[in-house]
Design brief:
Chains A, B: Belongs to the D-isomer specific 2-hydroxyacid dehydrogenase family. Chains A, B: GO terms for molecular function: glyoxylate reductase (NADPH) activity; hydroxypyruvate reductase [NAD(P)H] activity; NAD binding. Chains A, B: Pfam families: 2-Hacid_dh, 2-Hacid_dh_C. The structure is a homodimer. By secondary structure, chain A is an alpha/beta fold. The longest helix of chain A is centred in the C-terminal third of the chain and has 19 residues, at about 300-315. Chain A has helices at about 10-15, 30-35, 50-55, 70-75, 95-100, 115-130, 130-140, 145, 170-180, 205-210, 230-235, 250-260, 300-315; strands spanning about 15-20, 40, 60-65, 80-85, 105, 160-165, 185, 210-215, 240-245, 265-270, 290. Chains A and B meet through helix 6, helix 7, helix 9 and helix 13 of A and helix 6, helix 7, helix 9 and helix 13 of B.
Chain lengths: ~325, ~325
Amino acid sequence: MASSDHQQSPETTNLRLLLIHRYPRFKTLYLSKLRTRYRILDPLDKSDPSFIPLSNSVRVMLCVGPTPVTLETLDKYPALECVVGTSAGFDHFNLNECRRRGICVTTAGDSFSDDVADFAVGLLIDVVRRVSVADRFVRGGCWPVKGELRPLGSKVGGKRVGIVGLGSIGSRVGKRLEAFGCNIAYTSKRMKPNVSFPFHSNIHDLAISSDVLILCCSLTKETHCIVDKNVLNALGKEGIVINVGRGALVDEKELVQCLKRGEIGGAGLDVYENEPHVPEVLFGLDNVVLSPHVAVLTPESFEALEELFTYNLEAFFSNKPLRAQIEYE
Amino acid sequence: MASSDHQQSPETTNLRLLLIHRYPRFKTLYLSKLRTRYRILDPLDKSDPSFIPLSNSVRVMLCVGPTPVTLETLDKYPALECVVGTSAGFDHFNLNECRRRGICVTTAGDSFSDDVADFAVGLLIDVVRRVSVADRFVRGGCWPVKGELRPLGSKVGGKRVGIVGLGSIGSRVGKRLEAFGCNIAYTSKRMKPNVSFPFHSNIHDLAISSDVLILCCSLTKETHCIVDKNVLNALGKEGIVINVGRGALVDEKELVQCLKRGEIGGAGLDVYENEPHVPEVLFGLDNVVLSPHVAVLTPESFEALEELFTYNLEAFFSNKPLRAQIEYE
């Protein structure tokens, strides 16, 4: 197959049209496979002479990662009927506008849920038991010199863990931490049936009775800055924040101040307000563990994701039900 | 109470004798409390004029951490009847000689088991999901420059985890990792009743069918260097070793060579052959996580330990049954 998509060989002209929507920095690992089944339209490929005419008739978009799908984006593709997403979150979609235009939208569904839950627990153990600090201590040659790593970490078991958002990720976090003897409680849009963990109707009440808050919810208007100064105060001096959701779930400036001043105990952060920018003051703190939005990233997750969006693209063209479709409220 | 033990006030002369046995580097956090109940004999306190006469009649020793109790040690205290240990392991005791002399020996029992199991799982997630590497990447300011952290980690769920030693620590590791969807198998001195995990009669067979080996067993003559070159080869290029037992369970030179050459996939090490010495070549490797023998160290564990040894000292003097006593075979 030719590497440039606009060389319309007899094979490609009969293929179904697929629009690829992505930040330039996202490599589309799946393109070569997709080219065998679809005629790819790529707005980043400026040399494709048929891009503009075809963009008027393209019906389905593969949206790579959290690339924003705005009103402006939608205006460029008037025939769009379906956005197949590849991200667990959906804050990058203008859902109101998609609904108004009758465009259905899918997400990565559960493809990443186990990995994100594993990573959340990894961050929690790391912060509580000081694993990364210990690793720095040994690599820095401090052990023979200083003798002991102090202060000690604290016990994981018995910790009161408040899960914010008991969806596919949060429920998996709960299952894992129960096995460590943690006491789980949660807040969520509504109380879940068949869940024995105590429910709190708001995050402030949850924070008051938690040693650790784990943010697993989607970023929406309602959850924007849900962890504010009040919640951090409620969590208290020994409290820990783990964020594997989205950076904007937290008032980042307040969080950084609280960490710096010891007004909360620690944090494990995989996501930030302005990625890839991370507040540099955190780099010098031993009570934080920082990772570059990698909680979802394993080859196994990508395989599950590829299977899901491949299915959804085929389903779209054969009028079958989509999987992991966002239900408009 | 006076800070020097040999000032024999009327109160102290009537107290029961307790020998403290420790490396000079171990601070005895518990001494001030113990002094209210016992007349402390401390061989490191050279200024105690009654040390030598009293050492002939002392009946019980509190052994702090893994301080060796050798034949030579035992010869110094001819009246010794009981060694109250504070360590989960017992490789630092000359047990044959203790048995011959009719000296009973206790350990830390289960006091540390949850913490060690938590830390083992923390090391596993860290190595598999590259948490410490991610933290170094962010702190080093690499994210905005390099864009992506590569290679990716791999999925925790589905990993075949071989537990070496399914005692109080190993069984807790198994329970935790089941909740992540790992497939657990084990080897142990003998097959455990009422355990559903598959049993392998030797570590080599376990390694062949494992992605991760977690060393949770005691160090004995039989387990010394139980992870040798053959076992590492059986584990293979993607295999991971987690050691929260004792450094000498592993042929450290071979392990370091295998890690360096990529002949195994990675390692999470809390213990080493010659602590606090850690082979420096490991400091430059991204496939290892290193911690300074801290898996047992939380304030909660120390409280549980203090309760246990305090009980055992009282039990000794009142002829009650001891807890966590080593049973001679």
